[in-house]
Amino acid sequence: MTDPEDPARVARLRYELYVETLRARMPQEQFDLLMKIMRMWAESGDGTVRLKHDSPEKKLFTPELQQEFLSLMGLLGATRPGHEDQADHVVAQLGDGEHNRGAMSLVPPEVAADPAKLRAMRDELESKARRRSSDREAVEGIAQASGMSTTDPDHD
After folding, report:
1. 137-150 pLDDT tens trace
2. Closest Cα partner for 31 from 40, 42, 43, 19?
3. What are the start-end ranges of the E strands in 1-144?
4. 3-state helix, strand, coil in the chain (%, to 5)
5. How far apart are CA 49 and CA 39, in angstroms?
6. Separation of alpha carbons 92 and 71, rounded Å
7. Residues 6+ away with beta carbon under 8 Å from 56
8. What is the pLDDT of residues 80-89, one digit of tens each?
9. Would the CA dihedral through 62, 64, 65, 70 be positive or negative?
10. What per-residue confidence (pLDDT) applies to 156?
11. How would you label 117-148 residue by residue, b for 16+ Cβ within 10 Å and e otherwise?
């Protein structure tokens, strides 16, 4: 029996149960891709993971898979002492912007229930995407002026 006084253990069991539920519910190839992405995320120190998709993986990387990835991030994050509340976070749809389509984020329930906060999150994503695009264009301009190649193998 699980010790209710050990919140990290409870969070870990909750994560493991959710993973097993996904294993039973998802097509095997999609589940395998989700677990691959989770490993990459965990190995990166829970930071940013850049995915390069070949055709079959791109087809499997659906909005539903992305939503499950965010859910797993919250459940796994809840295993850390002091972060147990992350298990209660929900995936919020932020909507479309000029640079982001189908944006979603893992947020506390009270944020998910506040359209103004969700709009502000989407606006912040858009602002960052706009800056990245502007920076990329500036770097490409400098590279072209210098006679360097502007082909970025990591950029689609």
Report:
1. 888 888 888 888 66
2. 19
3. 90-95, 103-107
4. 60, 5, 30
5. 10
6. 10
7. 29
8. 888 878 888 8
9. positive
10. 47
11. ebeebbeebbeeeeeeeeeeeeebeeeeeeee
